[in-house]
Amino acid sequence: MDWITTVDHKKIAILYLMAGALFFGIGGIEAILIRIQLMEPYNQIVSTQIFNELITMHGTTMIFLGVMPIIFAFMNAILPLQIGARDVAFPFLNALGFWTFLFGGILLNLSWLMGGAPDAGWTSYVPLASTAYSDTHGVDFYTIGLQIAGLGTLIGGINFLATIITMRAPGMSFMRMPMFAWTTFITSAMILFAFPAITVGLVLLTFDRILGANFFSIEGGGNPVLWQHIFWIFGHPEVYILILPAFGIISEVIPTFSRKRLFGYSSMVFATILIAFLGFMVWAHHMFTTGLGTIANALFSISTMLIAVPTGIKIFNWLFTMWGGQIRFTTANLYAIGFLPTFVMGGVTGVMLASAPADFQFHDTYFVVAHFHYVIVGGLVLGIFAGLTYWWPKMFGRLLNETLGKITFWFFIIGFHLTFFVQHFLGLLGMQRRVATYAPDQGLDELNYISTIGALLMGVGVILFLINVVITFRKPADAPNDPWEDGRTLEWSIPSPPPEHNFTQIPLVRGLDAWWKEKMAGNTKMTPAEPLGPIHMPSATPLPFLMSVGIFIAGLGFMFSNDEFGNGFMNFLFNNYIVVIIGLLITFGSMAARSLFDDHGWHIDPEELEDKGAKI
Q: What is the CA radius of gyration of the chain?
């Protein structure tokens, strides 16, 4: 009950982490099945239909449900600590964002058990996603599940924006914020602009499928290319929504383990802003083969190539940070250093794909698959592992085993390059993506075999990480405030794990890398910006959980509203929208309870803090 009703950002971070791990595991199993199917020509491990469902669900699960919540876990756990805040701006909304995300993800994955998963690819292009070609409820699970999960992400983005704008500690100007706080801020702004687009697209596709509308139907005067525009005007910023927080993590890890300030801090900030701005101006490079014309293709080619400039600035700044530093090759730093050449390779193939004539050849081949995974796995997932290893003691009070961590790193990165490096050549040889099998003796056999072996090695790496977590949790939570000894930002100035109220007294920030500055001045704790006093805390509440349950029930009811069940009572419940109404009543009833009954929270008195011997 404590976990269901919590509004504490640190507990919500752990919930996000657990949910992300669950969906990441599901997506990983789907990936392994895909690779085993493609290990040899004419393999029959799964049917073509199941393969289409696996391809669709792997991409959708990993992008929307696997890596996104782990990023939100970091944002929840670390951001308020880094800016010297006691909580996020809206604790209630924070909980609501998590539960809507979780129930949206559960709804999407229920499709496996309720008549078949979506099978139109993770981009769900029409007319393939129309009822003419996807006549089960699979795509309905996709549209409604992602709307509910996306609502949670949008709520989270608004919350983090408000937190950073209004709750920074005294002295923490924007240009004194840690880079992870900056990337969280810019990512949240991108979420605010990108997610409404995909929500509109999913609503229109739902109307087409369930209510018989014609937004994307040529026969009814619609346009299927409209879906591509709507999807990619969200989909390309989404790549940067995922990768920018990883940039922020790398920008924290490398300075800590180089014992140096981040090189070119202000240029890093402006490069991040420029990446976000340009990220909204490149979406049609996914559509070079749809016939937009030479002018449009040229403009989107140029804007795509331009985005390599601010990314290059970041790469060189990280290299210059390490230059002349006292580098320690901890597990977290290995991931960060491994990230650099891997992400650069993804960027180089991205510039290749930005050339419209070249893209005509690369399009829909495994070259694109290789590029995308070099950016998302080689960039984002390596960044996530760096962040997990780096902040694990702060979140849980325990250091992960370094030896096992380094073994995990080598399994994962060697497996990754084995899997995806060869896929560039598979693509150049003409192997199409989303095809369930291939003929022998085309030069594809050995490369596919190598790719599958690599995927299995990555799987071993993930399992080793989980073993490391289990071993670590059997030890006492005795990590010091600053377990790496070279922590630079505010989260390392308080106990690990942090107390419920984070800071007993809000700290005074006197410069960039605030905690490092205090340590260099000989201080053992942050200078407080306020006297000791009562601390206001928000009350736990089950209402966010109940609201999300209501939305989940309503979504399920709407999806099956036109079905014939062969049971009079079930037909009555679903065909008359009774289930939808029940779900909405639960949601709006919870909203009414939230609105009509004041909850003033509770206070921690200074005497309680002194009894606990609390330090800032």
A: 25
> What secondary structure does DSSP assign to 7-30, as a single string?
--HHHHHHHHHHHHHHHHHHHHHH
CB 9 within 8 A of CB 406: no
Q: What is the structure's pLDDT at 616?
A: 45
User: Rounded to whole angstroms, how far apart are CA atoms 616 and 492?
Assistant: 11
pLDDT score for 567: 86
pTM, to two decimals: 0.96
Instruction: Report whether 61 contacts 477 (CB < 8 A).
Output: no
Q: How far is the CA of 284 from the CAs of 255, 299, 304, 601, in angstroms?
A: 36, 9, 10, 48
Distance, C-alpha 18 to centroid of its chain: 13
Exposure letters 240-272 (e unless 16+ CB within 10 A, then b): bbbbbbbbbbbbbbbbbbbebebbbbeebbebb
Which parts of the chain register pLDDT below 70? 610-616
Angle at CA of residue 300, ends 295 and 304, nearest 5°: 150
As a whole number of angstroms, the distance between CA 327 and CA 208 comes to: 57
Q: Taken in order 433, 436, 440, 444, is the CA torsion positive or negative? A: positive
DSSP per residue over 136-156, as a string? SSHHHHHHHHHHHHHHHHHHH
In the chain, the N- to C-terminal Cα span, in Å, equals: 29
- What local confidence, expressed as pLDDT, does residue 609 receive? 76
Give me the pLDDT at residue 610, please. 67
Helices (H), 354-401: 356-362, 366-375, 382-396
pLDDT at 614: 47
